Amino acid sequence: MARAIRSLLVPLALVAASGCGGSGQAPHEHADFPAPPPRGWRTVRNVEAGFTLSIPRRWTARVKRTATVIRSTDKLLVLTVAADRGPDGRELSPGDYARRTMDDLPGFEGSVLPHANRVRGSPYRSARVDGAGTLRTTKRPERIMVAAFHRPGRVTFTVVAFSNSKVPARFFGPKLREILRSLRGQPPGQAQRSGRSG
Questions:
Q1: pLDDT at 170
Q2: Could you tell me if residue 153 is left (phi over 0), alpha (psi between -120 and 50 degrees) or otherwise beta?
């Protein structure tokens, strides 16, 4: 897991880190309809990793093979979204997965809130862990959020968000919550839109 995180390091203003990735498709994975984007938003799709989500229209999204990196227009918020279909992604609970992802961030030093919360509005089993601190790569105080979305026996999707600690949490809070609840899964490598939840 730590190797996957290190391989997805991305800029946050200058540098930031990402969440876990993985490989190995579980059988019988189905596609869920992309969530309807709010007005002024658009849908971003990562076909190879197998997910869609909604972001504000002017934000940038760089789709890589195993992850999607999203940046706000002011570059004060960076998110990395990835899918893990390996043993951890198929078997760990979303709470355990989110905490392990936070623990595996390279050189993370800081504090993590003791309780994980579910992501309201998501059709999946989910957990969100919030913390604050610095990474070896940045040495800058950052607000860090990890959210994990679990399809039992199939996949865990992870969203890792980094924001400037000087920016109040409420500044990006509503948009971040909308992005999290918009995430939907699909079989990797397939751009289909047949809809079921679970």
A1: 77
A2: left
